[in-house]
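Schema walk-through. Below, the input block comes first and the output block second. Nothing else is stored per chain. Lengths vary across the set, and this one has 116 residues.
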Amino acid sequence: MEGTGGGRGEQVPRGTGDEDAPVLITEAAPSYEEEHAARKRKYMLMMGMRFPCLVLAGLFYHTWWLALLFIVISVPLPWVAVLIANDRPPRKREEVNRYQRSAKAIEHREHRIIDG
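--- output ---
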């Protein structure tokens, strides 16, 4: 038996072991844990680039301009790494649907006085 896949007219064969796999129907943002792990990887990569830059500056000490270039590259790396690690994607702006009414909407007609 075959089912349809994703509403695009594709046929997905059943019995392939993916019956329990959830179907993605929205473009949900990644979870906080996934986002944090990605930022940690970027931070570790950038901080890991600093030490090799300093080693290369030491190896190229006889070519002063190349050594200076590696030092200049390595100096702002910690600052940039922290900025990137602390940067979260902007939150989606959602308009809140609030009920708005004018002050007159509560009682918009005159009261009748009934003598009785």
